Each structure stands twice: as structure tokens, then as C-alpha cells.
Amino acid sequence: xxxxxxxxxxxxxxxxxxxxxAVTTRxxxxxxxxxxxxLLGVAGSLLVxxxxxxxxxxxxxxxxxxxxxxxxxxxxxxxxxxxxxxxAVGPWRAVGAxxxxxxxxxxxxxxxxxxxxxxxxxxxxxxxxxxxxxxxTWVWPFELLSLLLLAALVGALxxxxxxxxxxxxx
Amino acid sequence: MIHLLGPxxxxxxxxxxxxxxxxxxxxxxxxxxxxxxxxxxxxxxxxATQAAGADRWAAGSVLPLFVITIAAAEVVVALAVVLLVFxxxxxxxxxxxxxxxxxx
Lengths: 170, 104
What we know:
Helix content of chain A: over 70%
CATH class of chain B: Mainly Alpha
Number of domains of chain B: 1
CATH topology of the domain at 1-82 in chain A: Four Helix Bundle (Hemerythrin (Met), subunit A)
Radius of gyration of chain A: 21 Å
Distance between the termini of chain B: 64 Å
Distance between the termini of chain A: 65 Å
Order of helices and strands of chain A: HHHHEHH
Radius of gyration of chain B: 18 Å
Oligomer: heterodimer
Structural class of chain B: mainly alpha
Number of helices of chain B: 4
Largest sheet of chain B: none
Number of strands of chain B: 1
Largest interface: A-B, 93 and 73 residues
Number of strands of chain A: 1
CATH architecture of the domain at 1-82 in chain A: Up-down Bundle
CATH topology of chain B: Helix Hairpins
Structural class of chain A: mainly alpha
Strand content of chain B: under 5%
Shape of chain A: globular
Largest sheet of chain A: none
Order of helices and strands of chain B: EHHHH
Number of helices of chain A: 6
């Protein structure tokens, strides 16, 4: 166990505990807030793996934007303050979902764990190199991404807009 | 030096938790929480391949950025659809029967 392994284990435990509480809690607002904890744990583990840019973007976009959007949607759909009894699931469904998750995790782990052959020295990819590749090799996918964001923005606005009472919209 | 077992186990655990959350939730907004967990598991896996030194063109850093952006766009559209459904039907219960079943 090197220091990096210990730091990774700490943030990984934080991510798993946060994720577990996010999917099991019955308070809907708490679920979104536990997702913040899980994502901060994931960002910490990415930091340990040497991808500072990805970790910072993860915190900015996921914690800053996506979780706030989810909280807004919970408020707009009149989420209850206490436990969400209207959407409670039966014990069989909870057990089945847990088994499905365990089976998925077990399948992935059984494929991935044999590939982990010992310790590797962390490859240092600087942000300069990432920027050079992003605006060099990956520039066309990157531009396509801006189109995708524009389409998502316009699409969300069109879908969520209140219908025109006058009926003037085509 | 870092052992690759940790990232692989973390990615598997996150994907498993996300799938369990997707299967268990009836609230349409909380379904997205599970989807975010699955996507963050994929991020850990992509960055782990970079840390192992097995990537070209800095793909281990660039592809996670793409995944994060696409996930943000997906969440925006999904929440717009959820809000529209809530306005039309007054519920976001995923188990609620659809309007067509109500008629027949």
C-alpha cells in the first residue's frame, strides 16, 4: 500500500458510501445531496489517478450544475419534505434491484480484476498536453459537442415551455 | 505507484449501485441519480486506463470531458421531459399507468 493507494481507497470509500445512501435513502432531497458526496468522492479518486482537469470539471459541471438542476426539478415536481411515501417500493422490488446491482458489479469486477496486474507508475498527463490534444486531434468531436449542447438547450426550452394560451405558436 | 485493483473495483461498485438505483426508484427525477452514478463509474474506468499509461492522444482525459458534457445535456433534456409530464399528468411516478391504459 503506497500513499496513493491509501488516498484512493479513502476517496473510493467516500464515493461508494455516498452512492449507496443516494440510491437507498427515502428522502428525495437527501438523495440529491448524497449524490454530491458520491461525486466529490469520485472527483477525489480521479485526482489521485492524476487527472486534475477531469476532477475539476466533474465538480464544476456535476456538483455545480447537474445536482442543482435535479434539486430544482424536485422542487418543481412538489417533492415532499419528509420521506417520500408516495413512491415507496415494496420489499421484493428493493431486493430485486439490489440483486441486479450486485450481479452487475460482480460481472464487471470479474471481467476487470484479472486485468489488474500489479502496481503501475502513474502516467503524468499535464493539462498542457490535454489542451493540445483537445484542440488538435479531438477538435471536430469537440465542435460537434458544442452543437449538441445547443440542440439540448433549444430542445429543453421547447419541451418545457408552457403552451401558448392564444395558440399563436404554429 | 498505484495498484489498478482499486480503480477497477470502484468502477464496478459505482456501476452496480447506479443500476440498483435505476431499478429501485419510482420517482422519475431520482432515476437520474442512478444514471449519474453509472456514468461516474465509466469516468473512473477511463481515467484508470490513462493512469496505466495505455492511452494515445490523451484520450483518458479528453473522453471523460466528453462524457461529462453529454451527461449534462442528457440531464437537461430529461428534466424538461419530466417537468412536461408532471404538468400534463400531475405525477412523476414511473409505475403509474399511462393515459392510454386509463381509456381502455
